[in-house]
Structure formats: C-alpha cells, structure tokens
Design brief:
The chain is α/β, with parallel strands linked by helices. The protein is built from 14 helices and twelve strands.
C-alpha cells in the first residue's frame, strides 16, 4: 500500500493485464454463499471501470490484447475485461454498465448452456447444501453421510464435494450431481437454465461491435478429466457451434475453470492447433510485450468478489505480485522429448 508497486510498475507490470470476472449481480442475502468469491456487484464493476480510466489504462479488446502481446511496448498499459460462464446476469447486470461506459469486453461461452443442455453442478451443489442439515450421497461406490447443521460445516462440505466433483470424468460427474439432486428435490435442469443466457441474449451481445464472443468448450468440462480425443472435440465443437450461431469467426478460447488442475500442456497445444488466436487461463500474471507471453496460456487476474478495495486492485494491476508465467511452448517440447 506504500505506492512502491506503482513506481516499479514499468519494470514488473508488463504490457498490461487481463481481468477475469464470472458473475455480476446485486449482493445477495444469506449466510451460506460458497461462490461469493466468483461474484461482483454492478456497482463494483462501475467503480472498477471508472478507476481504470482514471489510472490511464487503455481498456482494450481481446484482439488488441493479442496484438500488444507480440509488438513493442506502448507508453500506456492496457487492461482487457473478460467474463466467464455465459450467465444470465451478464446481460441483466453487467452489460448495462459496460455499454454505458463504452468499453470493449470478452464473454467466454460454453455452448451447451444456451442450448439448455448444460449442467451447472456447482450451483446445484450449493442449493442442496444450503437447505439441508444432513446429506447423503454415493462417493466412489460407497454411501457417505454428512452432518452439516452449522454454517462452517456447510462451507467445509461444499469445498470438499466440489473438489471431488472437479476430479470426475463427465459421465461420473453428471451421475453424481443428478443423483444428489433427485435425493433432495433440486431441479438441476431448471437451475442451469435460469442461470444461463439464451441465444436471444447472446445475439444482443454479438450485435455490439465492442463485444467479443469467445468459446469455453461445449459443456464446460474440466479438460484434464477428458481423454485427448474428447478434449479436442469439446474445443472444436464449442467453437463450431458459436460460429454457426453468430456467423463470424470465433478466435479466442478460455480453459474451463482455468486453474493448474483444469488443463495441461497438451491442451495448450490443442488450442493452438485448433486455430484459436488465444487461449485464456485463470493463472495469475501479466501480459508481456514482444512475444514473451504465450497467447495460448494467457494469464489473467481472477478478481475475488469478497474483496472490494480498489487500492488492492491497483497493486495487482501493477504486476509486482506476480512472477512471469513460464513459456508453455518450451514445456510442450520438453514433454515430447
């Protein structure tokens, strides 16, 4: 907080930063909100954009992010605004703020959700745990029972079960969450449908020249849990569906969930071979100019919605807190050798 981060920004901050947000909606009541860190309010989004303009950042499109990543540094650093998941509050709460400010942004879309085929298992798990005091389910072929009367126990169980579900192949994950929802009368299909934008919402966004629609596979599956052929299909089919819907090339991709457990080096190579110009991760870091950042393992800063301090954001945007991301192409070559 001393300001040293800003003085050293030219040496550590690279060419710019890509910010990663997920849900944008008004603050909710309720003690149990395990996904609170994935949400910001429309008011905070408005404050963020005003601050970025005040701090003299260029707010740029994903195409411009990629251009500045491979060219010589410019006097002003940039920020790219990205939103993962294609949720309904993108059109209801985020878009009015973004369009009022006239800034470009990117939405990464898992195409099964506007088709009403996606399963938002993380929301269903939250709904079950929120209202139950005791929970039973089958884990690894064994019936497990959990007492969750207190709020602390609910948070612990959500973290435990969501971590377990993140490791399951898609058929096993679907079976597990559907079984849980049937036991506790949660309508998974309706919950997933209500949370996601439909094609009419997306058509409105796509008509805006400031909006870039990117792909996030078909089903938003963790790529690390898929066989290689299935991972390739998720990438290419997600892109094909989006291109057919919007009658334009989809040039940018985001790894579902995007952390180190969610994708591997081979998926970086797959994204490049599929023809994507960029593939965004959730690995923290800054974007460096002159080709020193691998665009197919593009770092982003995931904002924690529980943190509302713009001073903290300014420190993160300086890049002082992050080491350079290793060049993934070299990792791929090493792995092949």
């Amino acid at each position: 907080m001393s300001g040293r981060h800003w003085l050293s920004g030219r040496g550590t901050g690279g060419a710019g930063v890509v910010l990663r947000f997920e849900r944008v909606r008004p603050r909710r009541a309720g003690r149990f909100q395990p996904l609170r860190s994935h949400e910001i309010t429309p008011g905070f989004l408005d404050r963020t954009i005003r601050a970025l303009k005040r701090w003299k950042f260029d707010i740029v499109s994903m195409d411009e992010v990629c251009h500045r990543a491979v060219t010589a540094p410019t006097p002003r650093r940039f920020v790219g605004l990205t939103f993962d998941g294609g949720t309904k509050d993108m059109i209801a709460s985020a878009y009015p703020v973004l369009s009022r400010h006239g800034v470009p942004f990117t939405v990464y879309l898992p195409t099964a959700f506007p088709d009403r085929l996606g399963e938002a298992w993380w929301l269903a798990l939250e709904a079950v745990i929120a209202r139950e005091g005791r929970l039973s389910l089958v884990m690894d072929r064994h019936e497990r029972h959990f007492d969750i009367e207190g709020n602390a126990e609910k948070y612990q169980l959500y973290e435990f079960l969501s971590g377990w579900m993140r490791t399951l192949p898609p058929p096993d994950l679907s079976a597990a969450i559907n079984d849980l929802c049937k036991r506790y009368s949660v309508n998974l299909a309706a919950l997933s449908r209500e949370a996601a934008m439909d094609w009419d919402d997306l058509a409105k966004l796509a008509a805006d020249p400031l909006v870039t629609i990117g792909s996030a596979t078909v089903n938003y599956s963790v790529l690390s849990n898929l066989k290689d052929v299935d991972a390739q299909r998720e990438m290419t089919m997600g892109r094909a569906v989006a291109q057919a819907a919007f009658h334009r090339e989809v040039r940018h991709f985001a790894y579902p969930f995007g952390d180190r457990a969610a994708f591997a080096r081979k998926h970086v190579q797959m994204a490049e071979e599929a023809g994507f110009v960029s593939a965004a991760s959730a690995l923290p870091g800054v974007v460096r100019a002159e080709g020193r950042t691998n665009l197919h393992a593009l770092p982003r800063l995931s904002w924690d919605g529980r943190q509302r301090s713009l001073r903290v954001m300014r420190v993160l945007l300086s890049g002082a807190a992050f080491a350079p991301v290793a060049p993934t192409r070299r990792w791929v070559r090493d792995e092949e050798n």
